[in-house]
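Below is how a single chain appears once it has passed through the pipeline. First comes the sequence as given, then the structure the pipeline wrote out for it. We keep one example in the README because the format questions we get most often are answered faster by looking than by reading.
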Amino acid sequence: MAAVGGMLASAVIKVVIGQIYSTIGGEIKLHWNMKKDLEKMKMTLESVEAVLSDAETRSLTDNSALLWLKRLKDAMYDISDMLDDFEADTDLWAATMNNINMPRKMKKMQKRLQKIADDRNNYRVLPETRSEEKQVPDIWETAGNVEEEEIIGRTDEKLEILASICGSTTEGTTILPICGIGGIGKTTLARLVFNDSEFKEYSRVWVYVSQKFELKKIGNTIISQLLPGSPMFVDLHSMHTRLREQFIGKRILVVLDDLWEKNPSHLLELKAMMKQSEGCKVVVVVTTRERSIAQEIGTVDPFELPPLSHHICWDILKVKSKFETRQDKERLEPIGKEIAKKCGGVALAAQSLGHMLKSKTFDLDLSLNDYPLVIPDSSSHLTKLMLSGCRQIIRLPKFVDNIHFDYSGATLRDFSVYASDTSSNIHMLEHASADELKIWLLENVKSPGEAHIINLSEKQTILELWLSWTKGADRSVDDMELLTELVPPTTLETFVIRAGLLQCWLSRLANEY
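Resulting structure:
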């Protein structure tokens, strides 16, 4: 999950807190101290989450706050990666290492996170400094007429909102708030409504409200879009008068995107400004993170935007990562679906992770490992697997066509042959050595040359050798022809052949020795 640059910290932190909840309540047995460390980490993140709104506001004008947010996001990505590694289905080899390394990693991460949490006091916006803030472009500013590449999901939610609007009174002002956590897709949903054919006969206005609430700015923006070239009004009375003139006898759709203001009197003034005239129909869609704001501003019940399903998050990931164009998509699909579950139903998380995965490669270094390694099929998504000097490789994953292996000096004991349309993976045995070697599924070898490459007769460390074909399976190479390339070394003490091969070959082999 690392290096997701464009995500709001508030969106990332909710995903990570949910991931910690999942680990604590999951099926994996946790050491007592590890569980306490996770609980402590969760509480620290929840404390930081409470001040994120302030930090994100200040980050628009204050580089120190921006740096603090970057450090926080970097830490959260590392926490997520750490938990992913802990929960990964990596059988014996990783379970042993996790039990040894995870408590140390956890304490180190908690110390780093606590330092970030302690630093947050340096980035709070003091009331007396607000008037001195520089005016800079807001990087989160939105627009209603931006064409999305492809909007996935939220069709049902759009229909619900349209039904609610159409079911309201035929005249007057209807204010429908959409509320939900940051990054969940409120703006996207508002844009779907804004561009729907239901409002093709309406005058449409889009206002990005932002964290700094300015009633005059909102009013003047509405006027300028309804009446291009209109002068800016500096007093509320003149502005209200012009708004009333523009509203009379018209049908108008206004989207107020990203409303943060919590002051009830300010919200009442905004509400009153949108009710300027009789004989008109004004539909106002407001997006906000806070349910309390939604309840205060709305004339109808707020629409609470639910999280996306894991399935929809996976669809978003596939589109943003150009998944269908990847050569390794079959191997990456299982891990992609697991990543989709980590998005917490947050659309922005799925989009950002999808962009990251577009160029992502997956490496794993297990070199110089003395533990017995049983590397599961779920590791088939790897781009590079480093096994140099590993003493006991019990099993490799099935699908390894695109994996780059570095396994000089590795001891491989149990090997299954798998093949693509043109070649098999038996060449991986070229540099492997062991005192015991079992080769399964030999019917998948595509040519005698593949078997010749491994130089089986030169592996003088082998004392026990098994060669096995699946009975009745189709073969690309005749058994006798393949066996002439798999002559055992002279060091053998035990030799087993399975699949009813011809006794004459064994007799001929015995005569050669």
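Residues 1-7, 89-93, 125-137, 501-510 have pLDDT under 50 and may be disordered.

See the next section for the split statistics.
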